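ARCHIVE RECORD
Type: protein–small molecule complex
Small molecule: NAI
Source of inputs: curated submission
Record status: active
Notes field left blank by submitter.
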Amino acid sequence: MKKICLFDSKPYDKIYFEKYKDEYGFEFEYFETKLRPQTAVLARGFDAAVAFVNDEVGRDTINRLFENNIRILAMRCAGYNNVDVAAAKDKIRLVRVPNYSPYAVAEHTMAILLTLVRKTNKAYIRTREYNFSLNGLMGFVLHGKTVGVVGTGKIGSVFLDICKGFGMEVCAYDMYPSRKDVEYLSFEELCRRSDIISLHCPLTSETKHMINNKTIDLMKDGVYILNTSRGALIDSEDLVEAIKSEKIGGAALDVYEEESEFFYEDKSATIIQDDTLARLITMPNVLVTSHQAFLTREALREIAHTTCENLKEFFEGRELKNEIAASKS
Ligand code: NAI
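STRUCTURE (tokenized, with ligand):
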């Protein structure tokens, strides 16, 4: 029986990991705390550790895990910008779940776009209070609008097809264009041409703050920004300024660059110290969800299953199909 500990785990993770424990012969321990240098010692005595998007998997954490005899760390997510891959080399093998449900994330992206443009979040609150007035609820039609998709990998590609289904014009930017049926532009040209810009590329040193006051200047007045990828793709302070000046017409954000302190936690009784996040949340044309785009039955099942499969490969000394290698970081 292999003993595995999960960091930053929630009740919904437990439901799906427990389904696989007998099949794989694993015993799971669920830690609510995030993985960081101070908590890595909790992994002592376990055969593997499992971490998530907002865990701090930097050099110190890797070294602490290594000192505590952890030789495999399974990320139960696709993105791994929070992992110091080079620091893990020759110490800890790293695996991830590269493809658990592009549909979950792409559909959430369309959900928050529709909420934003048709104001269904406000309508819901009004009618619950028997306020049936329509004043202030005017939206616009997506059909015929141009959406610029940044990153046409698994998620961006599904989102692009959803947009085509809505009768939208589609253009894209990707370092490695893969779709024959889509017009690829430079990022600058995509900024100029799009009514709505949706981010689906990974966070890297090149993509960090790709939405900033210079690129925002290129955009159409009233442009909408969607981000279900990683928060730091956007310079949040520049975003706030552009919304205040009405250059940006609306933003739907499932991720935020400083989200790790807040997202997945109930902070409703706390004074939020992050003024940028607090300001964004007060804006009537901004919708923030708490990194929930993945949160579907299908994705959670696939995350648990692939993580178990990744760990089984390691324990059996087989090739790791989903290894995060230093060269790919
Ligand atoms: P993917 O690897 O299939 O696609 C990423 C695409 O971005 C590729 O086509 C790649 O060529 C392109 N790309 C890489 N560097 C680029 C650059 N510098 N400029 C432009 N394009 C670039 O990844 P997938 O599965 O589509 O995921 C996309 C992102 O979505 C992930 O990196 C992750 O951060 C985020 N994500 C968010 C979730 C959520 O719950 N909000 C859940 C899962 C993923």
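CURATOR ANNOTATION: The chain has two domains: 2-100+296-327, 102-288.
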